[in-house]
Design a protein that fits this description.
Radius of gyration: 18 Å
Helix content: 25-40%
Shape: globular
Number of strands: 11
Distance between the termini: 33 Å
Length: 243
């Protein structure tokens, strides 16, 4: 089984233009993400999927692997599917966002191992403890799982509704996905579904089509870089670590 980690890196960003090339302690962010992902041992290959020559050149400059993709993709999943279409040798694709320079390598390995041990699995993702301050934040996506650790629903609202005290701590969805190549290509061709359109959460398309999504739980906390403030916070972490 060949496992690849693909990092979509779109140059345009409303809140942080040129985000993949933003400086983090002397290196572009895409390099920081690539280097962190490369610490994982399960993936056989790490690939940046970008729509911009500047990002492609930056990756080539530090010795990484990049693929140019179309600029008109509506979602990151569509960009991943283009890579999957071009690489029939890959069996499983793990998607790490290009703005996650603090991603935990062991989490990537855990996702890959799921597919090595479960031949029926098509899709997996990650959940972390949800803080009380995030209960009513729509940007903090919640996920509720069944007793098998599979997602039952994702929502921007708090789920389940706490009429009684929570039996298990709520989970915050972490946007790291793993798919079999075959399912990723199938998923990209599916029509958007009602709950997906209502919540603006693409992963609901899989659930609404009856596809099980396994959820790995982690206590790790991540800072995705969406704003200049996030970038400053991540810079400070790298500088304190002397990296």
């Amino acid at each position: 089984m060949k496992i690849a980690c693909v990092i979509p890196a779109r140059y345009a960003s409303t809140r942080l233009p040129g985000k993949p090339l933003a400086d983090i302690a002397g290196k572009p962010m895409i390099q920081r993400v690539y280097e962190q992902v490369s610490k994982a041992t399960v993936p056989d290959e790490v690939i940046v999927a970008t729509d911009d020559q500047r990002v492609f050149d930056a990756v080539a400059g530090f010795g990484g692997t990049a693929i140019m993709t179309k600029a008109d993709h509506l979602t990151g999943t569509d960009r991943l599917a283009e890579v999957a279409e071009a690489r029939p040798d890959i069996d499983v694709i793990i998607n790490v966002q290009g703005d996650e320079p603090l991603i935990a390598p062991d989490l990537i390995d855990s996702l890959g191992d799921l597919f090595r041990h479960d031949g029926e699995l098509k899709m997996a993702t990650v959940g972390a403890p949800l803080g009380e301050a995030e209960y009513n934040e729509p940007s903090a996506v919640k996920v509720i799982c069944n007793l098998k650790g599979q997602a039952m629903y994702f929502s921007r609202s708090l789920i389940p509704y706490p009429r009684n005290a929570f039996v298990n701590a709520p989970l915050k969805h972490i946007g790291i996905y793993a798919y079999t190549r075959d399912f990723l290509l199938e998923f990209a061709k599916m029509e958007p579904t009602p709950a997906e359109l209502t919540e603006s959460l693409e992963q609901l398309r899989a659930l609404e089509n009856g596809i099980a999504i396994q959820v790995i739980k982690t206590d790790a906390r991540f800072i995705g870089v969406d704003t200049p403030e996030d970038l400053a916070a991540v810079n400070e972490i790298f500088k304190k670590q002397g990296l």
